[in-house]
């Protein structure tokens, strides 16, 4: 990162923070149709990954990349993610209805849902998600098992984003930016650790 120049009010880290928030707002808008959520989050991760390669991190670059992304495969990934989320909600509703064995079923459903969320979010952060969702999901599943610490960080990032959105509703529109930054950082951390071995 460049250093703060004379007369500059904010340094490069504050500029990156502002860019992350603008990308987060653009991601929120792109996620509104719901089936575009994986492509939108994956694009945000790709744009933020570019910060380490001296590419601009702007909402404009995000929109340009997203326009190239909305293919049938991206929409299918969104439909699968939406179906999984609806199935998870239905399972929790059934568990709350007082069926026999409901507490154990609820815990099992929560664990399966958390694992699926970790794999899905880690897949969004992988560079392969820009062109091949299947390869991204396979790689994310391997990473989720091999890098348990990174998977824990992904869950913490999701919990933090959810808590911020719950505490102050307008933050829900900015939360995808820091979430994408956290996912990208976990993936870059994994890549760096793999290259050192």
UniProtKB/TrEMBL annotation:
| Top-level taxon | Bacteria
Q: What is this protein called?
A: Integral membrane protein
Q: Which organism is it from?
A: Streptomyces coeruleofuscus
Alphabetized UniProt keyword annotations: Membrane, Transmembrane, Transmembrane helix
Transmembrane spans: 20-48, 75-98, 104-124, 145-169
